[in-house]
Amino acid sequence: MSELQTLLESLYQQYQQHQEGELACYIPELCKANPNWFAISMVTVDGQTFQVGNCEQTFTIQSISKVFAYGMALADHGRDTLLTKVGVEPTGDPFNSLIRLDEDSKRPDNPMINAGAIAITSLIKGNSSTDRLNRLLDMFHRYVGHEVFIDMPVFMSERDTGHRNRAIAHLMLNFGMIDHKIDEALDLYFQQCSVLVNCHDLAVMAATLACKGVNPLTQAQAVDPNYVKDILSVMYTCGMYDFAGEWAYKVGLPAKSGVSGGILAVVPNQAGIAVFSPLLDEYGNSIRGRRVLEALSQKLGLHLFDLSMGGCGLQDAMDSDSPTVIVTP
Question: What percentage of residues in the chain have a pLDDT greater than 70?
Answer without folding.
Answer: 92
